From TrEMBL, chain A:
Catalytic activity: [molybdopterin-synthase sulfur-carrier protein]-C-terminal Gly-Gly + ATP + H(+) = [molybdopterin-synthase sulfur-carrier protein]-C-terminal Gly-Gly-AMP + diphosphate; [molybdopterin-synthase sulfur-carrier protein]-C-terminal Gly-Gly-AMP + S-sulfanyl-L-cysteinyl-[cysteine desulfurase] + AH2 = [molybdopterin-synthase sulfur-carrier protein]-C-terminal-Gly-aminoethanethioate + L-cysteinyl-[cysteine desulfurase] + A + AMP + 2 H(+)
Lineage of origin: Eukaryota, Viridiplantae, Streptophyta, Embryophyta, Tracheophyta
Species the sequence originates in: Amborella trichopoda
Gene name, Swiss-Prot/TrEMBL: MOCS3
Comment on bound cofactor: Binds 1 zinc ion per subunit.
Coiled-coil features, chain-numbered ranges: 13-40
Protein name per its UniProtKB record: Adenylyltransferase and sulfurtransferase MOCS3
Gene Ontology biological process: Mo-molybdopterin cofactor biosynthetic process; tRNA wobble position uridine thiolation
Automatic annotation (TrEMBL), chain B:
PANTHER family: MOLYBDOPTERIN SYNTHASE SULFUR CARRIER SUBUNIT
Official protein name in the record: Molybdopterin synthase sulfur carrier subunit
GO molecular function, one term: nucleotide binding
Species of provenance: Amborella trichopoda
Post-translational modification: C-terminal thiocarboxylation occurs in 2 steps, it is first acyl-adenylated (-COAMP) via the hesA/moeB/thiF part of MOCS3, then thiocarboxylated (-COSH) via the rhodanese domain of MOCS3.
Listed SUPFAM superfamilies: MoaD/ThiS
Presence of keyword Zinc: no
Family: Belongs to the MoaD family. MOCS2A subfamily.
Highest taxon above the source species: Eukaryota
Role this protein plays: Acts as a sulfur carrier required for molybdopterin biosynthesis. Component of the molybdopterin synthase complex that catalyzes the conversion of precursor Z into molybdopterin by mediating the incorporation of 2 sulfur atoms into precursor Z to generate a dithiolene group. In the complex, serves as sulfur donor by being thiocarboxylated (-COSH) at its C-terminus by MOCS3. After interaction with MOCS2B, the sulfur is then transferred to precursor Z to form molybdopterin.
Length: 469, 110
């Protein structure tokens, strides 16, 4: 019996292996074919010169305006062609155009999907990041199967899935002073769908140096902004904001949160503006800014200043060249990193005033009398918190010191006279807890200590199931 | 930008009292609606407000008034776009009663 079962298992295994081998072979064949077609696209302009797709007699039997549209193109884009203000010429312009999307996140997701669907001939996608589960509520181009994989790859495959006749170029890297000129120069229109202020200045300057129109969108919380920079004599980002905002004013989605559909709305509008510019229809949002306000359902459009004659990048006497662009230190200028994930690590306290999350865990396990103050905002505390922690948000700490004193007294009531309970402070990442401890030292709590790395380190080093956000 | 959802009632009342007194003392003031966006909302705690300024005040005078009223707003003093009645207005533009001034700091998230 055992022998027969074993034979049976072996047989199934051999069958699976054979199927796997055959599927892998088919996959290689398909990838080869994709390469061939992509090369043809690259060499032969916007449309696929795939045998069988284009009718050799087609152009002879049609009038000249639609001569470059295949029957498939006409069928696919028919609703565009039916629009009197867009029509064949608009579609042909789109098919011949190239658009670069920097950032395949909340803004880039809908923008890319629409650009691919509507037949932009060549789309470039730049992003250095990988897909994470906490991206999926807003970055709708990605799906669960791509978690941990390159956002560019995920986005490119989604775009290909919608429209296999266009060319997608993947740049799985961060845009920086060294690669930006080379990449941006290959495109007609640039979409800024990034998440940080350094890259925004870099992209704007690069577009000025290369003379490219820039469709700039941004979203945070429940608000969005949209405008077109450096288009037909219009202002650039620096004309409007010559000085970068201070670090405190540069909020990002991973700290402040964002309602998923808000970047979705702005990303769609970015696609629209890019399509208008690429197909030469309508009036681009240049010299004006759209402000989207989700909660009261309001959209404001305000006129913004024109090009500044004194602008460092595009003004009358500006000397901003390719060389100066490449040597400009954007992270230093804005005091903000190129990625919203890189956060400056604060180091405010001496080592004696700090303990690791592991050490804190040992203190709990020993049953050491202590008070743990969590200085995160209340709505963060509501997401997840450590047992018995006392939530005193940093902004309210000054007026609630009495609560710390009371909590310490309760802990000390069972102790022998003269013994003290410890005071620990925690936050999300370990910066605010340092600020709080620094403050507490000066107001009568000289023994307060902070937990290094905050709840993030707790989840990483002590309790991996602690919910992180 | 027609409807204002969140006017600071207390302030409007104060201004009305001032206006009444103003009539007696013949010291008129004009009223400017201010709209805050993005970081300006976090710093002031308001989406909009009303400020009273002297006739002849400029856009920049009004901004200075806002800084004294909301000191934390100075954080973005070098990084904000201004729009007066939805139009671009240089800092020396003279304000009129009922003008609407928008304070627009850049958003960088995405």
């Amino acid at each position: 019996m055992e022998g027969r079962e074993c034979d049976c298992r072996e047989g199934r295994r051999a069958g699976i292996l054979a199927e796997l081998k055959s599927l892998k072979q088919q996959k290689i064949e398909i990838e080869k074919r994709i390469n061939v077609i992509e090369t043809q696209l690259h060499d032969g302009g916007h449309f696929a010169e795939e045998e069988g797709v284009r009718d050799p007699h087609h152009s002879a039997s049609c009038n000249s305006a639609s001569a470059s549209l295949t029957p498939q193109d006409i069928y696919r884009y028919s609703r565009h062609l039916l629009l009197p203000s867009f029509g064949v010429q608009g579609q042909l312009n789109l098919l011949k155009s190239s658009i670069l999307v920097v950032g395949a996140g909340g803004l880039g997701s809908p923008a890319l999907l629409y650009l691919a669907a509507c037949g932009v001939g060549c789309i470039g996608i730049v992003d250095h990041d990988v897909v994470e589960l906490n991206n999926l509520h807003r970055q709708i181009i990605h799906n669960e199967a791509y978690i941990g994989q390159s956002k560019v790859k995920s986005a490119a495959e989604a775009c290909h899935g919608i429209n296999s006749t266009i060319r997608i170029v993947e740049y799985p890297e961060a845009l920086g002073s060294q690669n930006a000129l080379d990449i941006v120069s290959k495109y007609d229109v640039v979409i800024d769908a990034t998440d940080n202020v350094s890259t925004r200045y870099l992209i704007s300057d690069c577009c000025v140096v290369l003379g490219k129109p820039l469709v700039s969108g941004a979203a945070l919380g429940l608000e969005g902004q949209l405008t077109v920079y450096h288009h037909k004599g219009g202002p650039c980002y620096r004309c409007l904001f010559p000085s970068p905002p201070p670090q405190a004013a540069c909020q990002n989605c991973s700290d402040s949160g964002v309602l998923g559909v808000v970047p979705g709305v702005i990303g769609c509008l970015q696609a629209l503006e890019a399509i208008k510019i690429a197909s030469s229809v309508g009036e681009p949002l240049s010299g004006r800014m759209l402000l989207f306000d989700a909660l009261p359902a309001r959209i404001h459009i305000v006129k913004i200043r024109g090009r500044s004659l004194n602008c460092v990048a595009c003004g009358e006497n500006a000397t901003f060249t390719r060389d100066s662009f490449q040597s400009f230190d954007y992270e230093k200028f804005t005091q903000a990193p190129f990625s919203d994930k890189t956060r400056p690590k604060l180091s405010l306290l001496p080592e004696s005033a700090r303990i690791s999350s592991k050490e804190y865990n040992e203190c709990v396990e020993r049953g050491e009398p202590h008070v743990l103050v969590d200085v995160r905002p209340e709505h963060h505390f509501m997401i997840a918190s450590l047992p018995k922690s006392l939530n005193l948000p940093l902004s309210t700490l000054q007026s609630r010191l009495g609560e710390i004193e009371e909590a310490l007294k309760r802990e000390e009531s069972d102790l022998s006279p003269g013994s003290h309970a410890s005071l620990y402070v925690v936050c999300r990442r370990g910066n605010d807890s340092q600020r709080a401890v620094d403050y507490l030292h000066g107001v009568g709590f000289p023994l307060a200590q902070d937990i290094i790395g905050g709840l993030e380190s707790w989840a990483r080093d002590v309790y991996p199931n602690f919910p992180m956000y | 930008m027609e409807d204002i959802t969140m006017t600071t009632d207390k302030e409007t009342q104060e201004r009305e009292i001032k206006d009444e007194k103003g009539k007696l003392k013949s010291l008129p003031s004009i009223e400017i609606k201010v709209l805050f966006f993005a970081r300006a909302r976090d710093l002031t705690g308001f989406t909009n407000t009303v400020v009273s300024v002297k006739p002849g005040c400029t856009t920049l005078d009004c901004v200075a008034e806002l800084f004294s009223k909301f000191p934390s707003l100075r954080e973005i003093k070098d990084s904000m776009a201004l729009a007066l009645n939805k139009e671009y207005a240089p800092g020396n533009t003279i304000l009129n009663n009922g003008d609407e001034l928008a304070i627009i700091p850049p958003i960088s998230g995405g």
